[in-house]
Amino acid sequence: MSASNSSKINQLMQSQPYGTVFLSSWLSGNGYSPDLQKRYKSSKWLESIGTGAMKRTGDQIDMEGALYALQNQVGLSLHIGGRSALVLQGRSHYLEMGKREMVLFGQAAEKLPKWFNTYPWESIVKYYPSAFLPVSSGLIDYDVRNFKVKISGPARAILECLYLAPKEMALMECYELLEGMNNLRPSSVQELLAGCTSIKVKRLFLFMAEKAGHSWLKHIDLSKIDLGKGKRSIVSGGVYIPKFEITVPKELTDHGTTL
What we know:
By secondary structure, this protein is α+β, with helices and mostly antiparallel strands.
């Protein structure tokens, strides 16, 4: 190998953290042609993990390493969200049984590449493309060994949980998660609620926050939040909450009351 080629491969190996993925499109955009990528694979510098993606030969990667590449190399808004983000931040008291579940959210137009869907990750991946929240509001950096990925902060994560409720996530679990969030930043909550397009999510969030008695709620300016018009039935046969015009499970209204 010539000195220039040796320098080029060394630069590549140093450009991304260990445990992460190299996307072919990113490599091409940074001067590593498809032919050069083939040479690196034949020389055992890189190995394919599916069409359009590679890793260092012998390197161990997990789903977070793939997420790093999709966030940083092609700029997807894809991120760990919902319950999974709360688990990573130590905010969930629910124990996961069996294989770890990883909930991902992304913008409505974003699709997971085939190599991501077919790779044998150790986690069960559930992906929800949506546009009910602003792209970057409420995201935080999460340390994964030697690199960082974007995940939902607590306020965004609970809104994502409520987005999935009641079909994909139990409302009582959502409430119990929100009940423990006594230190949310009002400015973050305000920004997220103002940008949220789901009337159901906003009404449920405000109802649950009020029921939990959180002090930060008094700092939220409801005049700047569109709560829509008309009744919303979250579940059938539940209890109607006039203030927020929603019908919720009776077990939720009874929770915490003294009989």
